[in-house]
Amino acid sequence: EALEQHFGLPIRVDNDMNAAALGEKVMGAGRNISHLIYVSVETGIGAGIIIDDRIYDGAAGGAGEFGHTTVEPAGAPCKCGNRGCLGVMAAESAMISRAIQMLAMGAHTKIRDYHQGSPAQISLEPLALAARDKDSVALSIINDCLDYLAIGIANLINLFAPAAIILGGSTMEALHPMGIARVRQTVSQRVLQHGGQRSYTIVPSQLKNRVKIVGASTLVFSEFLDHVDFLTPEKVRI
Questions:
Q1: pTM here?
Q2: 34 Cβ contact partners less than 8 Å away, ≥ 6 residues apart
Q3: Rounded to whole angstroms, how far apart are CA atoms 167 and 159?
Q4: Eight-class DSSP state of 77
Q5: What confidence tens digit (pLDDT) does each residue in 133-178 have?
Q6: Domains of the chain with CATH codes
Q7: Coil, strand or helix at 170
Q8: If exposure means fewest CB atoms within 10 Å of the residue's CB, which of 52, 126, 202, 233 is most exposed?
Q9: Stretch 91-105: mean pLDDT, rounded?
């Protein structure tokens, strides 16, 4: 209300993961899918949930804090006060932290071939390049983190039974296609099968770095059209 009074315009505020999920639903990999979950992996991890073509906010508007679900009870401490949250075990920051530790320990790894500076200044890129070069240390770091992510995603599938999990975020883009392949493999080993049939799909984001702005724009349109079902790619041009 304060923003509306200041600008003299109607204002819609929502979670960025909700916007991303809606963006994929309307213009991306989630078109024609009524039940989906968008998962973003960057320096943190979040999720946006669509149920029956609608954003699921939860009772108090806090649904989708996927990065704060516990996947390792004795894991690293999280800023939320918990330990072993998915975000501290599987996000890009977790991968980089592991790489810094291995370099500091003097591990023999091709990561050094792609990063000549201080280990403390390493980014995801040399880690990903070394993994593509079949470096065992880099692969171990990335796969360990992705396995935690996959455990979390398997839990989402077992809980919500979505038709699609859409994986986005800069980390998954940097690790494509090996990242999503690892997640699919691990999820398939852990998710509950219904009648022996796989009832879900795991796909990469189609909108990539445009996903949030497309979703935010869609939120505004949906206020006027009352239901997101009325929004189609032919009607929305971003």
A1: 0.88
A2: 50, 51, 52, 53, 163
A3: 18
A4: B
A5: 999 999 999 999 999 999 999 999 999 999 999 999 999 999 999 9
A6: 2-230 (3.30.420.40)
A7: helix
A8: 52
A9: 97
